[in-house]
Amino acid sequence: MIVTRSWLNEWIDISSISTEKLLKTLNSIGLEVDSIYSYKVPQKIVFGRVLECKKHPDADKLNICQVDIGTSTRQIVCGASNVRAGLDVVVATIGAVLPDGTLIKPVTLRGVESDGMICSAKEIGLGDFSEGIIELDSSVGKYKIGQEVSQNPIFSDDIIEVELTANRGDCLSIRGVARDLSAAFDKPLRERKVQEDEDKRLGIGRILSLSQENNLDVNIRYKAVDFKNLTLPFIVRLRLSQIDDKKDSDVDSLMLYTTHSSGVILRAYDYSLFCTKDEPVAKISLSKDKKGFASIMLKDKVVSIVGIMQDDFFKVTHSDGVVLIEATYIPPDIISKKLQENKIPTGPSYYRASRGSEPDLNQGLDYCISIIEANSESTVYGGTIEIDEPHEEKIITISKKEIDDIIGANIDKAKITKILKNLGFDTTKSLADNFAIIVPRYRHDIVNKQDIVEEVVRLVGIDNIPSKPFTFTETNSFSSDYYDYKKRGTYRHKAAFSGFFESVHFVFDERKVLQEYGFETLDESKELLNPIVNTLDTLRTTLLCGLLRAASNNVKNGYSSVKLFEVGSVFNSKREESLKMAFIFSGDREAENLANSGKPAKVDFAFFVQKISNIIGEFELREYKTKHTLSHPYQCAEIFVANESIGEIFRLHPDVQESYDLDVTYMCELEFTKLPCSLKAARQSSKYQASFRDLSIVMPKEMAYERVKNVINESATKEVVRFYVVDKYSDESLGKNMSLSIRFVLQSFDKTLEEEDITNTMNTILDALKEKLGIGIR
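Predicted structure:
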C-alpha cells in the first residue's frame, strides 16, 4: 500500500509531525514501513505565469513566452505543445540545476534569447505522467508567483510503501491508514461531505431503474453524472503515477484515484450502452449469474461481477456524456469462499474486495463527486439508487480487568475508550468496568477479546508497557466432571483388580420389594407415571436389591462364588439423585484347588472387610444397626473414613439368603462421592528402629472396644505410631470378663527408643485405662 505525506494530510493533519515520527508510529501500530522515497524539487525552480505566448519566427514547434516569475518577467523559449498565455507553470530560473544535472543558463534558440526553462513533470524529477509542461491548478494548494516550488508540500513529498498483512484490508486506502494514525496521534479524521441541492437537480430515478435478487449480501449505490469538459487535476495525475497505476480514460483514472484514497470500490459505466430506443429508463438488475456470483445484469448479459471484474464493453472510454458511477461492498469472506468454489478470471478490484473494502459507500461517492464538480462543468443527477443489505452488529464484551490481565499492565479506562473510539469502535453501551464494544463493519479481522486487546496494545505502544518477568502459569482446564469421571474409573478398576465383576442395572426397581426390606421409597407425588413394567415401577433408592438378584441368578447358573459390584445412581424420597457404590460377595472365598483339598472356605466378615479395604483404602468400623432388614443383626458395621460415615457393611440375613438361594453372603454399600480420591501425600518416616510391645487387658465382655481405643488415643504419647488388636481370649476363670491383647508400635524421630521410654509410655496408657474405664493388665 503506497501513501504520501501530502495525501495523508488531506485526511488527517500531520503537517506538524516529522517524517521520522510518522514512520516510527506506522511501525509501532502494526503498519510496517517497507520503503520510503523522498523527493524535493531543486532550488531556483519557481511558480510562474505565462503572460504572453507567440510563435517563434524561425521554428514552427517553438513559442516565445513572456513569463512572470514574481521578481521580474522573463523571456523563455518553450517547445511544449500545451504552453499558452494565462497558464500557471513551473519555471527553472537561471542557475537552477535539474535532477538530471542540467544547469539552466541563458541561451539563444534560433536567434531568440531565452532566460530560463518552463518545465515538465519529468524534468523536475516527478516522473513522466503527462505530455508537455506542467499545467498548475488549484489541486496543488495555494502558491504565489515567484515562490520556490520546493516550499509546496506537493513538490516536496515522501512516498511511503506500507507492508500490510492480509487481515488489514481496512488500511488498503489513504483514508484507512489515516484512520489508524488518527487514533495513534489522537487527531480527528477529516471527512468530506457533499451538500446536494436536490430540488435543483434532475433525479437519477428518471434515467435508471435497479431491481434486485434477495440475500446476495451486497451493498450497492449509483450516482449519475453528465460529464462535460472534465480535466483531471494535476495532483490526481501525479499521485496515480506515484502509485504506479493509470487507466485508459480520465473517468476510469478518477475512479481508481478515489478508490485508492477513500477505500470504496468505484466503477464507471457508459450509460449509453444501457439505453434502448423503446425504453426511456435504463433497467439493470442485481442477481446471481450462472455460477452463483452476485452480478450486475443487463437483460441476460453480465455487465460486472460485484467485487471481481467489469466487462470491458461497458467501461467509459470518453470524458463527455452520461456516466453511471457505482460504489459496491461485499463481505470479504463471502466473495473469497465463492471464488474458491468457482474459479473465474478476476479484475483489479478483487484484491481489495477479498481483503475487505470500505463499506461506507456514501463517503467514497461524495469524495468522487467533489473532485468532478471542482474540475469540470459536469451535471450531477440528484439522489442515489441503492440496495442496502442489513447486517448484524458484531458485539464483543470484555472487562477492564481482562484487558489488564492479558496486557500485564494497568491501562487507564479513559485511554482505552479513546483509542477504541478513534479507531471507529462504538463503546457507548459499556457499563462501569465492562466494555460492550460494537465492532465497525470495516474491521473484518476483529472477532474476539484478544483482538480488542491487540488494538489497545498497538496504539498504546509495546514500548510503553512495562516489562515483567515471565511466569508460566496455566489454569487447570479440567472441570469437575472430568475428575468425577476419572474417580469412577479408578474405583471400578480397583474393584475389578480385587476379583469383583461389574454389574449394571436399570435405575428402576420394584417398590414392593424395597418396602418389604425397609428401604426408603419415593414419595407418591414423585412416582413414575408410566413405568416400563410392574417389577420396575419406581426409581431405586439402593443398589443392594439389584445386586442380590444378580447374585441369585449367577448361583442358579452353577457358580459357587459370586463377587459383584456396581457404581450407579440412586434416588431419595424427594427424587434427589446421588451416586453410590455397592459390593456383594457370596459363597466360596476361593476356587477349589489342591491347597484346600477341594473344599474352599466360605467368605467371612474379616475376609470381606479386607477385600473392601483393598479397594477403598483404610477405614474404621463402628458398631451399627442398619435401617433395613437385609442385614444379619449381629454382623453389621458402619464404615468411617477420616471420622466421616461413608456407608455400611454387613452379612446378609439367613432368611434373605435362603429366599435368594444364596450361600453365606456379605454386602457393602458406600456413598461414592465421599470416597477419597486425592493425591497421595508423602509423610515423614523415622530413620530409627521401631519397637513393639503387647498389652493384654482384662475388660468386661460387654464393653465396646471403641471405648478402649478412644482412651488410648487420648493418652498415647507421640512415640505411639499405631496399635491394633492381635488376640481375644476368655475362659471360666475370667467369668464375665475377657482378655484383649493389643500390640503397640512405638518409634521416635529423634532417637532409638530405650526401655525406659517404652515403659513410661505403656504406664501412661495403663494409668488412663484404669482411671477412665477401671480396667488393667491381666
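Summary: The radius of gyration is 48 Å.
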